Amino acid sequence: MAGLVAARPLNLRPRTGPHNSPTTIGGFRHGQTPLSGRPRPLSAPVRRWLPPQRQNPPGSGAGKGLFFVQNVLFDLDRHDIRPDQVPVIYSKAFYLMENPSARAVTQGHCDERGTEAYNEALGDRRAKAARNFLVDHGVDGSGQSSVSYGKDFPLDPGHDEGAWLRNRRAQFVLW
To answer: 42-70: per-residue pLDDT in tens?
Structure first.
């Protein structure tokens, strides 16, 4: 068959030399798996991503205001969590872990470009990506749900790149 390339066997033997340092073990960075090279999902210690003023005692409800204000933003036609948005979603995960009775609906939104059906499906993927990120990092998934609004409820009614950026979001609502 044309176009198929034989896969190289994986070399899982530890490397020697400058690759073995306190930050790398066997040529892999700390937190990476040898097969994928991707970081392993982090468990509950999300406190290191939060600014000091957000580290409130459990049950205080002090982080509830920021829970509504901060949205997770996405790139055009993408539904994966951007690296610069990880601290935002970690703060939401931290709040939900510290307040186990709180339940959240993750809403997926898109900008005005694209068809109705495409934006509905993309909003659904964005909402599920944000919800799955929370669940993968220690939030109880039984009370979390997701919904897509497509381009129906824009946060910014403008028609420029700045408005479109603010409208491509996952928004969290407590209930």
So the answer is: 444 444 444 444 444 444 444 555 566 78
Give SS3 for 23.
Answer: coil
Q: What is the pTM assigned to this prediction?
A: 0.63
130, amino acid identity: A
Which residues make beta-bridge pairs with 28? 25
Please give the Cα distance from 71 to 146 (Å, whole number). Answer: 14
> For 7-28, how does the pLDDT look when each residue is reduced to its tens digit (9 = 90+)?
444 444 444 444 444 444 444 4
Q: Which two tokens stand for residue 143?
A: 């009370």
∠ Cα 142 44 55 (to 5°): 105
Q: How far is residue 46 from each of residues 56, 71, 72, measured CA to CA in Å? A: 13, 18, 16
Using CA atoms, how far residue 151 sits from 26, 76, 97, 118, 169, in Å, is: 47, 13, 30, 10, 11
Residue pointed to by tokens 């600014």: 51
Q: Say what the pLDDT of residue 64 is.
A: 56
Instruction: Check: CB of residue 170 under 8 Å from CB of residue 68.
Output: no
- φ and ψ at residue 107, rounded to 5 degrees: -105, 130
